[in-house]
Amino acid sequence: KQEVTQIPAALSVPEGENLVLNCSFTDSAIYNLQWFRQDPGKGLTSLLLIQSSQREQTSGRLNASLDKSSGRSTLYIAASQPGDSATYLCAVPPPTMDTGRRALTFGSGTRLQVQP
Amino acid sequence: NAGVTQTPKFRILKIGQSMTLQCTQDMNHNYMYWYRQDPGMGLKLIYYSVGAGITDKGEVPNGYNVSRSTTEDFPLRLELAAPSQTSVYFCASSYSTGANVLTFGAGSRLTVL
Questions:
Q1: Which of A48, A61, A102, B35, CA to CA, is 20 to 30 A from B48?
Q2: For each of chain B's 113 residues, which pLDDT tens digit applies?
Q3: Is A46 in Cβ contact with B103 (below 8 Å)?
Q4: Which residues of A touch B2 (CB under 8 A)?
């Protein structure tokens, strides 16, 4: 059974800092990984989707990396801003050989607060 | 373009009552999902559907039922509500499984007293 872990559970940083959020997964036979953002009381918004053939994906100040062999992904946020305050979740699809379950497995998220 | 629409946004139920959470998507997505999110936790899959007329259980299906009579709609039925079902429920859809970006609704916050 795929398990996804995110560390730390919460993070508070001053504005302007660069920061890294971590995601680890137990079964490396995945074909992509997604990072989502969730604002309080809202649904999830997809930020980045990394295919297994890619090692990095960038969108603005966000950079996500994927290392399948070690079962890890990181989300790097450059020059953090108060507007970045939210919960960030990573999610993986079923392992490529698992045809029985067809939905994403989510980590519990990292709650980020950027202090002005 | 509405995306994924969930209703109601908030609901309070008494123990033993029943209700249906509605979910509609206008993107012609084949795959639809219901997740629940408990405080400080990730999302757990309740049910999913790969197309009209086809549904399957996720991790935590007990106490819930779904149907998928059309591509657009995927309602979630709670029978005999229990306090353990107090949670935020999210509906999501995608064009195919895993490989495409998942689009989420805004969520339905349910409290069972």
A1: A48
A2: 679 999 999 999 999 999 999 999 999 999 999 999 998 788 999 999 989 999 999 889 999 999 999 999 999 999 899 999 999 999 999 887 555 678 899 999 999 99
A3: yes
A4: none
From A116, A36, A29, select the one nearest A75 (Cα to Cα).
A36
Given a contact cutoff of 8 angstroms between Cβ atoms, the answer to whether B105 and B23 are in contact is yes
Note whether A20 contacts B: Cβ–Cβ < 8 A. no
Ranges assigned E (strand) in chain A: 4-7, 10-14, 19-25, 32-38, 44-51, 56-59, 62-67, 72-77, 86-92, 105-106, 110-115
**A31 touching B, CB under 8 A?**
yes
Q: Looking at CA atoms only, how far is residue A18 from chain B in angstroms?
A: 24
Residue A101 reports pLDDT greater than 60 = no
Mean pLDDT of chain A: 90
Chain A residues within 8 A of B90 when measuring between CB atoms: 43-44
| B53 Cβ contact list (under 8 Å, min separation 6) | B68, B69
A106 contact B CB<8A? yes
